[in-house]
Amino acid sequence: MKEIYDILCEFEKRRGQSFALATLVRAEGSSYRRPGARMLVCEDGHTVGSLSGGCVEAEVSVRARDVLRSGAAAAMDFDMRRRFGCNGKIDIFIERVSENFLVDLARNLAAQRSCRAITTSVGSSVIGDDVVVPWEANGFPYSPFVQEIHPPIRLLVFGGGPDTAPLRQLCELLGWQAIEIVDANAFSIEADEWTAAIVKSHHYGRDFTALQKLLPLNLRYVGLISPRKRRDQLLNDLLDVGVVINAGFFAPAGLDIGMETPQEIALSIVAEIQRVFAGGSGESLRERKISIHASKRSVVPDKWQTSAR
Question: Per-residue DSSP letters for 161-228?
């Protein structure tokens, strides 16, 4: 999703200009990117986002500038088996994107609201909850392509330390929002389904206060940097005051990647959060017996699934 946020950021910097938007609307077989990948092409040829591993972007950019000049949408298909390294085929739809579409997207994401973008032969728009589009409609170009777009993950960071800076840097790289909380007693951010938290003050009382506030929120991810013995002491004390421990509590936090340095610890935690929110297994792709994307679970909340399957 980061490219969506980057595209909107570029749009804000270039208000008043015209833009072409290239969207990967269909993929058959294997491909580096999946449907929903987008690339913005500006009037001066500057691009934001990607559609492949760098194989087709130059050709798409040239065609996109034709679309900007003519105003007529275009479709491109690439057989990756003949020219490139992937064993599949992708379809790209290019449009002179409307300002209203980008404004609507930005407004929803700024309000931490998930939304749906629909792309048809006449362009893209944001549709509301009341518009039911069957999942089968994603067989573009013969029917609309629908994509669920969610706000960036917000990572609440309770406590300082040498791993805070790399955590913040990794969040920036992924398009997440890192929010550092100095005093858990003053914590007043309204959490939602795209909020995660890591507790790492290394101070028993401050960690206890943070967890006492966080665990009742039923977040999908609350991590604690702590040895198991100290974790167990915290859990016992939390249970004594009536705090329920749910499945979203990860302690010690992080995936086992042999971490030691603050940078490696931060990477371990961010990887675990990504796994939880994206529904990944965390296993090495080498060990998979099926397609990389075959069993990947949608990061869309359950409330969207009835109209998007």
Answer: STTHHHHHHHHHHHT-EEEEES-GGG------TTEEEEE----HHHHHHHHHHHGGG--SEEEE---H
